[in-house]
Amino acid sequence: MKKELIICIIIFILIIVTNIITQNYTKKCVSIMNQELDILKETSLAVEKEDSKNLSNDVNTKIRDIENTWNECQEKLAYYIEHDELEKVETQIFTMKGFGEIGRYDEILPELEKCVFILEHIQDKTRLNVKNIF
């Protein structure tokens, strides 16, 4: 009886520690992505106001940077988050990339906001709380 109790306690502690690690990593990735998306938002707003060729190149560069950052984060997030959720973010990024390539910078902002919402949803969904348990 004593061995079983010790094994159960160890398993419980491992589950809690693993959950804390995964939540921290998810929070870190969402934070990094939100920062990069905010920079993209400011840049695309500046393009709409000034319509500069140099700024439009900056927008496309920022989108590529966001795509690279997401690919790095996604590799580890895929271990413990549903792939459908991750694909939603990737879809938004590719949509923004497409709008950037054809010069529709006004269409990037709604897609950007959707991407931020999905990232926050992923972070909330992976959080350990009573709502997510039941």
Account of the protein in words:
The chain has 134 residues and is mainly α. It has a single domain, classed as Four Helix Bundle (Hemerythrin (Met), subunit A), CATH 1.20.120. Helices cover 87% and strands 0% of the residues. It contains 5 helices and no strands. Helix 1 packs antiparallel against helix 2, helix 2 packs antiparallel against helix 3 and helix 3 runs antiparallel to helix 4. The protein starts with a helix and ends with a helix. The mean pLDDT is 88.
Key terms:
0% strand; 134 residues; Four Helix Bundle (Hemerythrin (Met), subunit A); 5 helices; mainly alpha; 87% helix
Low-pLDDT parts are: none
**What CATH first level would be assigned?**
Mainly Alpha
How far apart lie the N and C ends?
Answer: 30 Å
* CATH superfamily placement: IL-4 antagonist (De novo design) like domain
Largest sheet: none
SSE arrangement, N to C: HHHHH
Radius of gyration: 19 Å
Q: What is the residue-mean pLDDT, rounded to a whole number? A: 88
CATH topology type: Four Helix Bundle (Hemerythrin (Met), subunit A)
**CATH 2nd-level architecture:** Up-down Bundle
Helix segment tally: 5
What is the molecular shape? elongated
Specify the structural class: mainly alpha
Q: Percent range for helical residues?
A: over 70%
What's the domain count?
Answer: 1
Strand composition percent: under 5%
